[in-house]
Amino acid sequence: MTLKELNFFYKLSDNPQVTQVAQELKISQSAISLAIKSLENKLEEQLFDRVGKKLILNERGRYFKEKTLPHYLAIIDSQKLFQKNKLAGNMKIASSKTISNYLMPDIYYEFLSKYSDVKFDISTINSTKIIENILNSNLDIGLIEIDINNSNLIKQKLCDDELIIVTSDENAPKIAFIDTINKKWILRETGSGTREVFINSLGKYAQDISIFMELQDFEEIKTILIDNKDTITAISKNAVKKELESKKLFQIKLKNFEVKREFHIVYHKDKSTNLLFQTFIDFLKSKFKN
């Protein structure tokens, strides 16, 4: 069934005079007759009684109108939906854990408060899985903490970040070589952007890291560190800001090493960049810039 066929049907259900309906719609009578016949053939039911030059709605036609008219009107109304509000829609967004837990909550809240017809489907997964989901078109936008070069992805920088070494041992040296730190390393799981950037930055010195435990959540790692002074981790400075200020954790600066990285927005190169999509991208950039 087409919207045109349905439109003719509803017009004739209110006015059986085919000539008058044709004049109103500025088309030929034969065009209306052919459309109604096509509709009836698709339904395998006769909707009108042919009485002279009139098409009179019969019992099957009245039933069809009763069941379908509300849906037809909703479809017609939906054609104007985005003309009324171009900043409406449901977006699927995933962020890596550092970004999701420590940077995004207030940004999500502020954007949704500003645009009430927008909904977010938000998930928190590691950067590797975000990239997989973007490539499989399961996400609209990803926020990652690793550098990636893929011809099917568009990548835009959000901001800089720094990874630091922390422990709860207040007597630990403030500056040290990586191979002189005699503590148990607690790191994120394989696939984590934080772990990947840290290990890659160490180069050949990565062999001096003996990983005691791997966890998926920063809060779990921080809890272990605070309760056990013989442990240590590499973590985003953003993730331990409160703990450094309260002196629950202490930074150890690495000699000859400074671990910097960038946070990025990524999306598929074939993603349609409508007004809602671009507005959110611009909003993100402005917030991270500030």
TrEMBL record:
Keywords from the UniProt entry: DNA-binding, Transcription, Transcription regulation
InterPro entries in the record: LysR_HTH_N, LysR_subst-bd, WH-like_DNA-bd_sf, WH_DNA-bd_sf
Pfam families per record: HTH_1, LysR_substrate
Protein name (database record): Transcriptional regulator, LysR family
Record-annotated HTH lysR-type domain positions: 1-58
Lineage: Bacteria, Pseudomonadati, Campylobacterota, Epsilonproteobacteria, Campylobacterales
Membership in a protein family: Belongs to the LysR transcriptional regulatory family.
Chain ranges passing through the membrane: none
Entry GO MF terms: DNA-binding transcription factor activity; transcription cis-regulatory region binding
PROSITE patterns tied to this protein: HTH_LYSR
Organism: Arcobacter acticola
